[in-house]
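User: Good morning. I'm curious how P-hydroxybenzoic acid would be positioned relative to this chain. Could you predict the structure with it bound?
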Amino acid sequence: MRVQVAIIGSGPAGLLLGQLLYRAGIDAVVLEQRSQDYVLSRIRAGVLEQVAVDLLDEAGVGKRMHAEGLVHKGIELCFSGARHRIDLDLLTGGKRVTVYGQTELTRDLMDARAAAGLKTVYEASDVSVHDFDGARPRVRYLKDGAAFELECDFIAGCDGFHGVCRASVPPEALASYEREYPFGWLGVLSETPPVSHELIYSNHERGFALCSMRSLTRSRYYVQCSLDEQVDNWSDERFWDELRRRLDPQAAAELVTGPSIEKSIAPLRSFVAEPMRFGRLFLAGDAAHIVPPTGAKGLNLAATDVRTLAHALVDFYAGSSHGIDHYSARCLRRIWRAERFSWWFTGIMHRFPDSGEFGRKIQEAELDYLVHSQAASASLAENYVGLPFED
Ligand code: APR
Ligand code: PHB
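Assistant: Good morning! Here's the predicted structure, ligand included:
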């Protein structure tokens, strides 16, 4: 079988790329190792920058997001028992973020792909990529015990951090940069109204906490925890008590608790692989980079990667290799700016085991300066809503 683009992975990156290519008349097949239900079961943040919102509209899948997404004009930072609002709208001249769960975004993309009759192979096993250093790359996979080979012009590695594509690049051709954080996030999803209409990021002596949401009736909460914590040791009651202790008195009093419908612990890491192109193989999204979730940049970076890649492939088929030749450099500039912001925001909002008393006082001073300096608040705001996209 032959196709112009073989997309490995049906997460946000793979599905959005498939939709953008379809709208441009370029045929692509998506190969996904998991089932559709498994992909949809993943609980991931959905704080969309305007560039991601615009991209979903460009892909023709923005209708439900506009109907159900929550437009947020500010966030709150909580420390020393008080909340301080960062007015994103005022500080950025009218920019906002849209809160719309990644699960819903993935569902919209899957529905659009199915409605267009586009081929997605779920539960494709033993996916392998070949000859991407030449002009005739190939992808092999198993489906229901039968072996298949896909000839293509390009392979898009949208297969996430643990995918096969980056792992198939010769080690000497790749440079990677990584930082692992000495803590994780214990997250709970509950069918309860959010404690506040905006997100609350809290730095407390007991650790970081985050109050987020999926809708006006479904909330998402996190507390920083040590890496050796076990989810089974955290009853709902223990989680809610810990969350309350890390919030200001008003939020603690107004928190509506209820049964968790999902509870999990995730590690935090910063990671970038360079470059993102290897002949006819292109990496996009988590396959190429990971950010700690503090800045909510993961989904947004995946979106801008595939926007750049889709436009590059359209140019290629129109006769210009300029886009594919500059794909990696264009993406990496934006990626590293988001990596810096995510690392910085993680640094001032979490308690680090080795920071010591001096480090704690510096963090207090950093937060005090951040919320009382318009320049510092504006810097946070412009990064949080997303830096301007440079084509
Ligand atoms: N073969 C086929 N599919 C694979 C393989 C493989 N060898 N390895 C991984 N996959 C699939 C995974 O099952 C997953 O569905 O690739 C997909 C990768 O999706 P994500 O991990 O969601 O990565 P991406 O699409 O880049 O989206 C990044 O999702 O992980 C969050 O926080 C992240 O918000 C960010 C966004
Ligand atoms: C979430 O809602 O899961 C979420 C929101 C903002 C973040 C991280 C996670 O910074």
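Residues 45, 47, 199, 210, 212, 220, 293-294, 296 surround P-hydroxybenzoic acid (ligand 2) (CB under 6 Å). The mean pLDDT is 97.
Let me know if you'd like a different ligand tried.
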